[in-house]
Specification:
three-stranded antiparallel sheet, TIM Barrel, globular
Length: 328
């Protein structure tokens, strides 16, 4: 069973990138986790994870191209995010290449292209320049995201996430229109054979019973976004309760202490992302409780964590797994 889940030998090598030897306590912890639980990091290309995930030192570009098999050999890493498609839609062949590098039971969480999730067309520095005519356009979402992901990922598909960027003031003033656009897009998209479609937001104005009703009607899930732009986890739970039962999708993006625009501050403080410098046991404990309840009801949980959540995503995954399935 363990070989099926974790790909066999813990020191698997691909083009010179080997996995760090699995710690016996991680192997034992992984064995206590339900197969419904898929924990992972937001991506996999960090040289500073040497000794945690990688055996030896490798460049970011080498890890991006060839590090996924070694990442997926780690006993606790049963999922990973693919965020780069947010900036450029990925082809089915690119998704397939990723799917072919991971073991049975592994799942991907993928962000939809900003082409359909951002109401503004932005410059290279992120400034909104003009309205995006393809915002929440179903045909564009299908062609640029849904069809390639379904075709390429197959059974490794975990969650396809429409992370809706912050809305400009004019759209925030007319949320009824935004709910109608989102509802129409989701209704037009086919459901995946495995995994789920999910919606993550960056404006608290979305967090109303209308969103729960919309998601329930379309069969999509709410993606819990742990980010300072949104209320804390406890205040997002009513949406999960309104959609129960069903799979859980969580993206733990940024520690609240850095504020809504604190990505650069977090990156500067955390350096190579090899240490947990800002542990957040309250969030981790509440999240563990929700994961246990979800998996205990026979539902899948797809959880990815950024380095900017606590300082080192692999260490956050380990600490969360320990909270979900304590020893003894």
């Amino acid at each position: 069973m363990q070989d099926e889940l974790f790909g066999g030998a813990p020191q698997k090598r691909t083009r010179g990138i080997g996995a760090a030897p699995a710690l016996p306590e991680d192997v034992a912890l992984a064995a206590r986790l339900s197969p419904h639980i898929h924990l992972g990091t937001s991506t996999w290309s960090y040289p500073g994870w040497e000794g945690l995930v990688w055996a030896g030192r490798h460049s970011e570009s080498a890890l991006s191209k060839n590090g996924l098999p070694a990442y997926a050999a780690h006993p606790l890493l049963r999922a990973v995010g693919i965020d780069r498609g947010f900036y450029r839609p990925l082809a089915a062949s690119e998704f397939q290449r990723h799917a072919e590098q991971v073991p049975q039971g592994f799942r991907f969480t993928v962000k939809a292209p900003s082409l359909v999730t951002d109401a503004l067309l932005r410059s290279d520095d992120g400034r909104g320049q003009q309205p995006n005519p393809l915002f929440l356009d179903a045909a564009t979402a299908l062609q640029s995201f849904i069809e390639p992901a379904y075709e390429g990922l197959g059974a490794t598909l975990g969650a396809l996430v429409f992370q809706l960027s912050p809305l400009p003031g004019g759209r925030l003033a007319d949320m009824t229109q935004q709910f109608d656009l989102l509802h129409a897009m989701l209704l037009a998209l086919p459901r995946p054979a495995t995994g789920v479609l999910a919606v993550e937001v960056r404006d608290a104005a979305w967090l109303t019973p209308d969103l729960a009703a919309l998601l329930r009607d379309t069969g999509a899930r709410y993606c819990v976004g742990l980010h300072p732009k949104l209320p804390p986890l406890a205040e997002q739970l009513p949406l999960l309760r309104a959609l129960w039962p069903g799979p859980l999708v969580v993206r733990w993006n940024l520690n609240r202490l850095h504020g809504a625009y604190g990505y650069e501050a977090a990156e500067s403080k955390y350096g190579e992302f090899s240490e947990m410098l800002d542990p957040d046991p309250d969030t981790r404990g509440e999240l563990a409780r929700i994961i246990r309840g979800t998996a205990g009801a026979g539902q899948d949980a797809f959880v990815t964590i950024s380095n900017k959540a606590e300082g080192s995503a692999p260490l956050s995954v380990r600490a969360l797994a320990q909270a979900v399935a304590p020893a003894g």
